[in-house]
Known about the structure:
The chain is 40% helix and 20% strand. It is an alpha+beta fold. The relative contact order is 0.23.
Amino acid sequence: MKARIQLNEAYASWVSSRDYDLLLNLNTEAEMNYEQMSKLLCRFFYKAEYDVFGKTKGGEYRRNLYHSKEKFHIKRVVAIEGDDKRTHAHVKVKTLEGWTN
């Protein structure tokens, strides 16, 4: 138990030291477990990156072409909390350069 408390404190300290601009809280009406919530958030940000970064002049999605470059990813920190059915997520997002919250 003590190790878990130390891990949570270290995580909280690390998150606080980062410069994130926007905090989102995701509560769902449908009952979801941790894995389902995690998949939902992955799909959400994957689709958001396609929309945000768009296509090149040749019609290729930048997200696909530059998937290994941080420039084409939305920086975020996600904490998923809850029990087996009532799960929620706290998401901190870094505002992209040239964008507003």
